[in-house]
Amino acid sequence: MCEDEALRDIIPGEALSIFRRLIGKDIGAACDFLMRHYRGEYWPRRLGAMPSLRRVRSDYVIKLPNPKPIMMTVSRAIVSRRSAEDFIDEPVSIDDLSTILYLGLGITGWTQAYGLDRYPLRAYPSAGALQPIEAYPVIHNVTGLREGLYHYDPFSHALEVLKLGKFNSLMADLALGQDHVGRASVVIVLTAFYSRTRWKYWKRALRYVLLDAGAVMENMYLAAMGLGLGVRAVGAFYDNELCGFLGIDCVEEFPVLLMLIGKEVRGF
């Protein structure tokens, strides 16, 4: 009874009955419906200190080369953008990876914000400029880099080495057995560091971090297309197992997308 009264306080009457019907059928649709009809307090007034924008995971750092210029026009990249069907076992260059990471979510300038004199601006639009998206390249076949799991630090445009080893078969297994995941030259795991956005936007934060991830995804698609590489986004994976591999908690930070990059199989 108390629970019903609490729900009535934040959801209008007719919407409450719809929410109850949805929760038994599709929890995702129910949660989205609840968010759209929520009438309680949205904003926590930025409680506490703003979470750090820099996620440091390792002291073992490899500086990336400067990103390459891309000659393809934006309009051509957009209209020619397709998801690669599969990949051939050929390397991509560290220069190409550097360019995709930089154009995907790199730091492109600085401004003043949130009381800071030097606040980063990123290649992707972000709700409140809180920049929650992190990138973890899993290297299989990239010239100049050993196979392994890395974390991208946009502040120094560098890769932090987390663990070395051959993980392409593991990545295919974690992606529900999709073999083409294991054939990509690099799989860039995009995660959302949720607490950054929640600090300001509270109950809207989940929506916003997913929008941010979509912007990074499209940047990477267009950059890879402009470099003549195959690219494919994959959203199906075992969350807990992938979090364990990345060394994240799946609560404050959780995986959102796998970006497969490599030389595409061409049809005849």
- Secondary structure class reads alpha+beta
- Net shape: globular
Rg calc: 20 Å
Strand content: 25-35%
Give a count of the beta strands, DSSP E runs of length 2 or more: 12
Low-confidence stretches: none
SSE string: HHHEHEEHEEEEEEHHEHHEHE
Please give the count of helices.
10
Percent of residues in helices comes to: 25-40%
Major β-sheet annotation: 8 strands, antiparallel
Distance between the termini: 66 Å
- Average pLDDT works out at 89
Structural commentary:
The chain is α+β, with helices and mostly antiparallel strands. Helix content is 37%, strand content 25%. It has helices at 2-10, 13-23, 27-37, 74-80, 94-105, 168-174, 179-183, 194-201, 205-226, 239-246; strands at 61-63, 87-88, 92-93, 107-113, 116-122, 133-139, 142-143, 148-153, 158-164, 186-193, 230-234, 253-264. The strands form three sheets. Strands 1, 2, 6, 8, 9, 10, 11 and 12 form an eight-stranded antiparallel sheet that branches. Strands 3-7 form a two-stranded parallel sheet. Strands 4-5 form a two-stranded antiparallel sheet. Strand 4 (107-113) and strand 5 form a beta hairpin. It is globular. The model has no long low-confidence stretch (mean pLDDT 89).
